[in-house]
């Protein structure tokens, strides 16, 4: 009897002493910390644009911009950004400050899930859930990227912790706890777009509890009827408070529907369903349901594509835990699990490109708890079937059940997440790893001069990403190059500089020819994508000619025109470049236009663009802008004029010279009679 009693106390629910549980939980959190902090600056292998955008929103908050929903980046819920706002002032505006908020939230998710799971489902289930959340790649990667989704599951666990699902009578304390659950549930909607479905959890439970109460009225089971009424009351409080908390956001979005552009991009399957085509929704639902063992997220953004979340053993435990929860559905804390899971799957099942691990983020706690439910059920079954003489084998069996899935999970995370994924070219391209590589080379070279960085398409967010990756501002100038781009070169302050060119944005040989420059290769990296560093020397330019400086109305001059290179005229194109020097502040939407006009003033060929990023240029910078004008198949005989000017893209307004003109004539051209030379030009200014 003593042995049987000892077995019951040791294995049925595994009730460790507070000291032992503290040791176990601490070890799990240490594992979680290692998985989230080791190589934080290199995995992911660069900054995603979403990370930079989220850091920008936190910066806007520090600057005084406040909102219930930010319009930046196709629309962002605000709560994560307010939590992240203090990190940059404390740590500097760098990569560490960007990613640490997610790290801390990821650790909080592990700790809170273990605490909630231990109370409601036992220490074994809590330990398995904690190990899975600590080592699984899905929770790990969203704890290593400085974006907002990881906040949603943290708030959901807080809601479930405070929800008195197992209460048998209504008390003031219970009502307060239910109100707190509703508060956390409502706040989760301010964390991430996918959380807008979470109010379905208390709604569905309320409906089920009401149906149970109606069923119980048919029998004489007073205690069960009382418990059902208590559950209904608490679920109603959770739902009501959650709706009340979420209403300001819903009213804001209803009044300003243009704020949430991203939601419109994800409505494809629902739009098809409204039109009577259920095919897209069914396909996305099937893909989402298979994410645990058969399918995987097709994108490279958060891991190797098309990989299921679980290895076969852990997937088997997941399905087993789900069956146990369904079998015990009459117990409200078990009923919660499949309801929570089903609701959290909806954002992925109803949107394109399923399964989407980022839209499934709200399911994280329950997904990693279900294998623990299965392990605890198996341990209980083994205990019942174990004879007294083999009782000593139970600790080993239980340890194997707990540790084997954790070891498999950790192995997959290290192999796929920390080794293969960040080294793949697709991942490095998505995270703009080459920008980080170029910045580190510039730092290691100790070059005090501002670098010039080439890119296929410049956005201000790229410059912000480079600055935050390095932790210092290189004050880089940016130019666009590569296929389909005319191209430009910048010499900061008109001095020799280092030009960093990634392999996917090569310099056009014609641009260097027009510049009369012979760039010297200083370095070529071995990485992928690789980059090259060139030393470029500017031509000698005289002092600024104020008479040729363009300016917006009422503003200081922006760019001073210096001259034009030789015109290269072919059968299909006219190619040349213009020289400029930055005089003062430049509008960020500035563009240079070149028009070839016939005798009547009609445009017959043109090129628009400024491939030097205006927002990065500073006073004294010298710019060479290449122009390629596609010529018509047939040019009629007559006189033509080649003109250059500047305008702002947002309103189309041209910049003007001090004498009021808005164009400069570069050349007079002529097409002779039919049968003679096609087009000849004479420069008017060099």
Automatic annotation (TrEMBL):
The keyword Transmembrane helix applies. PANTHER family: MANNOSYLTRANSFERASE YKCB-RELATED, MEMBRANE PROTEIN. It is a multi-pass membrane protein. One of its GO terms (molecular function) is pentosyltransferase activity. Keywords: Cell membrane, Glycosyltransferase, Membrane, Transferase, Transmembrane, Transmembrane helix. The lineage of its organism: Bacteria, Bacillati, Chloroflexota, Ardenticatenia, Candidatus Promineifilales. It is found in: Cell membrane. This is Uncharacterized protein. Its main location: membrane. One of its GO terms (biological process) is lipopolysaccharide biosynthetic process. The chain crosses the membrane at residues 21-39, 96-114, 121-139, 198-216, 228-251, 309-327, 334-351, 357-379, 391-411. It comes from the Bacteria. One of its GO terms (cellular component) is plasma membrane. The keyword Transmembrane applies.
């Amino acid at each position: 009897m003593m042995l049987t009693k000892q077995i019951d106390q040791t294995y049925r629910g595994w009730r460790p002493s507070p000291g032992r549980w503290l040791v176990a939980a601490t070890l799990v959190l240490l594992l979680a910390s290692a998985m989230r902090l080791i190589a934080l600056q290199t995995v992911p292998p660069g900054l995603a644009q979403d990370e930079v955008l989220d850091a920008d929103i936190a910066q806007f908050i520090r600057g005084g911009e406040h909102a219930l929903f930010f319009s930046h980046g196709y629309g962002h819920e605000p709560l994560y950004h307010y939590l992240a706002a203090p990190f940059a002032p404390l740590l500097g505006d760098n990569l560490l400050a960007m990613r640490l908020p997610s790290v801390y939230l990821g650790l909080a998710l592990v700790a809170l899930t273990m605490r909630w799971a231990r109370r409601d489902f036992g220490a074994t289930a809590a330990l398995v859930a904690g190990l899975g959340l600590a080592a699984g790649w899905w929770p790990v990667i969203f704890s290593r990227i400085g974006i907002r989704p990881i906040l949603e599951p943290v708030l959901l666990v807080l809601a479930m912790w405070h929800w008195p699902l197992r209460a048998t009578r209504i008390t003031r304390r219970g009502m307060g706890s239910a109100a707190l659950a509703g508060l956390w549930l409502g706040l989760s909607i301010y964390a991430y777009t996918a959380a807008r479905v979470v109010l379905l959890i208390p709604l569905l439970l309320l409906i089920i509890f009401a149906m149970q109460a109606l069923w119980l009225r048919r029998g004489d089971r007073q205690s069960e009827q009382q418990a059902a009424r208590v559950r209904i009351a608490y679920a109603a409080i959770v739902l009501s408070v959650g709706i009340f908390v979420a209403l300001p956001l819903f009213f804001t979005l209803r009044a300003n529907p243009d704020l949430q552009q991203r939601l419109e991009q994800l409505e494809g399957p629902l739009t098809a369903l409204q039109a009577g085509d259920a095919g897209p929704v069914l396909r996305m639902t099937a893909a989402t349901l298979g994410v645990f063992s058969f399918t995987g997220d097709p994108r490279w953004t958060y891991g190797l594509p098309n990989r299921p979340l679980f290895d076969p053993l852990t997937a088997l435990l997941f399905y087993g835990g789900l069956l146990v929860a369904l079998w015990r559905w009459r117990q409200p804390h078990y009923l919660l699990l499949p309801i929570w899971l089903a609701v959290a799957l909806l954002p992925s099942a109803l949107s394109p490109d399923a399964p989407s691990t980022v839209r499934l983020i709200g399911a994280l706690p329950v997904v990693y708890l279900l294998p623990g439910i299965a392990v605890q059920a198996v341990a209980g079954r083994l205990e019942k079937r174990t004879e007294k003489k083999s009782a000593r084998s139970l600790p080993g069996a239980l340890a194997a059940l707990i540790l084997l899935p954790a070891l498999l999970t950790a192995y997959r995370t290290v192999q796929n997440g920390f080794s293969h994924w960040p080294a793949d070219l697709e991942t490095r391209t998505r995270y703009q790893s080459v920008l980080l590589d170029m910045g580190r080379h510039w730092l290691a070279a100790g070059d005090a001069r501002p670098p010039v960085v080439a890119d296929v398409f410049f956005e201000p967010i790229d410059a912000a990403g480079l600055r935050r990756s390095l932790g210092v501002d290189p004050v880089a100038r940016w130019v666009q190059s590569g296929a389909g781009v005319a191209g430009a070169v910048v010499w900061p302050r008109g001095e020799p500089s280092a030009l960093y060119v990634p392999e996917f944005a090569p310099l056009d040989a014609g641009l260097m020819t027009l510049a009369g420059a012979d760039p010297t290769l200083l370095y070529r990296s071995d990485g992928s994508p690789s980059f090259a560093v060139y030393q470029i020397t500017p031509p000698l330019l005289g002092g600024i000619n104020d008479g040729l400086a363009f300016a917006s109305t009422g503003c200081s001059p922006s760019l001073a025109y210096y001259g034009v290179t030789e015109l290269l005229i072919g059968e299909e194109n006219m190619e040349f470049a213009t020289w400029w020097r930055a005089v003062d502040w430049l509008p960020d939407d500035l563009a240079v236009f070149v028009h070839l006009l016939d005798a009547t003033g009609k445009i017959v060929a043109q090129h628009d663009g400024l491939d030097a990023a205006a927002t990065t240029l500073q006073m004294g910078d010298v710019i060479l802008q290449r122009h390629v004008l596609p010529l018509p198949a047939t040019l009629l005989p007559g006189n033509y004029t080649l003109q250059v000017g500047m305008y702002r893209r947002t309103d189309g307004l041209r910049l003007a010279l001090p004498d009021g003109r808005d164009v400069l004539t570069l050349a007079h051209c002529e097409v002779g009679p039919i049968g003679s030379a096609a087009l000849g030009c004479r420069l008017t200014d060099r």
